[in-house]
Protein 1
Amino acid sequence: MVKLLYLILMSLTQDAKHLIYERLRRIVDKHVRVDEQPFSLSDSVKLSPREVRAIEFLGQSDTVNVTNVATHFHFTKSAASQLINRLVKRDLVNKEVAPNSDKEYRLTLTADGEAARQLIADMNQSRLDMFLEAIHDFSDKETTATANVLGALEKLVDRRLRQFK
């Protein structure tokens, strides 16, 4: 698909640019559907995409609090607190009073939370491996052209996101 994208870019026709836009829109729509699927830790435990991202984030540091979660994910503190409380109830996150403040909680992964983080990391590595296999035969020029198109699209999405602030 990217080889086709590269050939289209080289022609620089208006129709080709519209084709790129429409194809990427379809890809994004499909990715959103995939990304909305729950992640199965076991037959009985499934995590929402937000819960998966929170576990990834919490696994990066042992000094995370609810405010950090809210800021990182652009949530309200209330939404971040609700997310954390769901993970605490599932015994994936520890919520302890922070040593420097009675009003703040330090968040860490439990042993089960760390196991979940490792499963998520393995899934992410598998996805990366699949992607790298898919583009294995791309030349440096094709890879660069694709990266340029994706960079331009990311700037467009960033600009659109700023409209909602």
Protein 2
Amino acid sequence: MGIIYIFFIPADPTGFKIFMKLIPMALIILFAVITRPLFSLTYKQIILAGVFVCMIADGVIYWFFAGLVTFFIGHIFYILAFRHARRKQAPIWAAVPLLLYGFGMAYWIAGSQFKIGQTILGVAIIAYIGIILTMGWMAIRTRLKLAIIGAMLFIFSDSVLAIDRFVYAIPYRDMFVMVTYYAAQIFIAASVGSRVVKYSVNPNNLIR
């Protein structure tokens, strides 16, 4: 269904375009619902809420600020889910690439809006960059591979969309944005079934 939406559905009528865009998200929600929560039921419930909010955001993104705010809320749900799932403290060096990336994107994209006098939009962009990078950092702290992959794909998808909208046009933007976006949601939904393995250090359990 994602392939059909990305490559075969025309831009008009808009209502039908939105409808077809939401079908893959509805299927991803169904996938998460039927996935057995091997880690935590609470984690599954919060992830489901996040995917559902993101599905709503997909429908209202044609009104940019409405979509931005709704996606912002979706990321909050993902942050809460990843916070619930976090394990050991991640090494601080893991945050350095995210911080450098965030500062670079803020300077490039938000800066371009400040230069033309779009102060409110520039501030909104900085806030969104902050929330999505926080989501990525919290995913890293879970040590759940599927959650981390999904978060990184989400960051990539949003970055392509932002660059195309505010800096310069990217060829085949819709393909890059939607393929990575759907993949991100699938990986995050699949992380519901992640299993956390705990190892015992009891000497009686060691093979001599």
